Amino acid sequence: MNIPILYEDNHLLVVEKPVNIPVQGDDSRDKDLLTILKEDIKVRYNKPGNVYLGLVHRLDRPVGGVMVFAKTSKAASRLSDVIRKNELERKYLAVVRGVPNKNKAKLEHYLYKDTKKNKVHAVSANHKEGKKAVLDYETIRSSDGLSLLSVRLHTGRSHQIRVQLAESGTPLYGDQKYGQHVNRPGQQIALWANLLEFPHPTTKEIIRVESRPPNEYPWNLWTTITKH
Fold first, then answer.
1. What pLDDT score was predicted for residue 140?
2. CA-to-CA distance for 80 and 70, rounded, in angstroms?
3. Is the dihedral of CA 82, 153, 54, 201 positive or negative?
4. In contact, 140 and 124? CB cutoff 8 Å
5. What is the three-state SS of 186-207?
6. If exposure means fewest CB atoms within 10 Å of the residue's CB, which of 10, 22, 36, 99 is most exposed?
7. How many C-beta neighbours within 10 Å does residue 1 have?
């Protein structure tokens, strides 16, 4: 599988994750991104033995877009610190059903993950297992009963964008888990990680990497944001 490399040096590997591929091995036993990238590094650099590649953040299996991996344990540790300090800027493009009530807003929920069912629920603030989830969104365009949003994450909860937007009355296009009443089986979830910005783990230089969603429906309703 050809994984587009968006940025690489001795410390970092930033790639464009394809949709519908797990980030790391899971019960499906399908080939995962981490394994594919390790094998690619081994071949490209003719490395003997095991290749180190640190996973510091995740994307849901159906979601595509930009991801950063650490090529050394020191870089992994420093990137983890960056994430903990909320210094990793993460922006997504999302296509939702309907039009949000407000053109731009901050959404705050408490989320609880049912690990047995792999489903996340919005719960009250005093739920003992609820974790605070915060994001900002801005509506870019609306047409054909769909809206294109730019979403900025402040926290990195499981399924966060999908659950928070569904709770707000605008579920993601194609999301059968949190929008089964308006989406059909087989539709591809329209959520794309389009920007990462963070200080380099050794030079402290600001690294900014962007990725555009594919030129296919529903993204191509707004051709200025798609790959050509």
1. 97
2. 10
3. negative
4. no
5. CCCCCEEEEEEEEECCCCCCEE
6. 10
7. 10
